[in-house]
What we know:
single chain; 4-stranded antiparallel β-sheet; 12 helices; 10 strands; NADH Oxidase; 2 domains; alpha+beta; globular
Amino acid sequence: MTPAEKHASLIKSIANRLGFDFCGIAKAGFLEEEAPRLEEWLSRNYQGEMGYLANHFDKRLDPTKLVEGAKTVVSLVYNYYPETSLPESPESIKLAKYAYGEDYHFVIKDKLKDFLEILRNEIGEIEGRAFVDSAPVMERQWAQKAGLGWIGKNSLLLNKKQGSFFFLAELIIDLEVTPDTPLTKDYCGTCTACIDACPTDAIVQPSVVDGSRCISYLTIELKDAIPNEFKGKMDNWAFGCDICQDVCPWNRFSKPHQESKFKPHPDLEGFTNQDWLELTDETFRKVFKKSAVKRTKFAGLKRNVEFLRSKE
């Protein structure tokens, strides 16, 4: 076994030990095929008010600009599929499943810090950085290169064994590691379930999403008032949206996560629409103290709920 093969075996062993569901490895380098796609997407203003997506164009495409001397991108999958969805009827106000429990940024970032520490203890000094949806890293493309899945028509990474209800994270390191084989086949076939189900027509063509029309964008990223054209089309989502994942046939393979920190806050489990309408800043701070929902702030969440309740 070569040193690079030993490193690959060690990395996958550590990933398993830390509770990651899948781990894949790719050789660091410029994402040549992605450059024109990203440029086209930005030129159409599909990023909406997410101006940061147009920043650091070169870094987004080349991990060696994020970590000097980078040789390897390690992609990791961490499951967040809940055992049961929060109580919901067709009229229930809803949160995306990833926001039920504690903020994934912190939960996974802590694991990645441990990952790097274990790796350095085993191998010696290596340069590297950990990323969880926190820097200009094209995580879905790297995960595909690492053989963890393919990009679905809803633009999310799909995995044959686990669907798409998971977080992606990366380690970019200057260590030589034997890469995995990229997944080049698209297993969506002729299915258009996600495209057909999107109430705001955000999926403009297979694998291309107009972010400025996505319910997740409208409820989280958009700071101004939600445009009136989306009244009656939000399907009662107050933070994020799971529609394109809920209808995806591959998510029948989703299995409940084992992360206690992702369990909903006890008060959240019994939330009624009346609770949402009467939400106070004090309750918001209590229930969402450690949640990703804090990103939209109390005022943003109230705006969303009021928009959902307003007449068409």
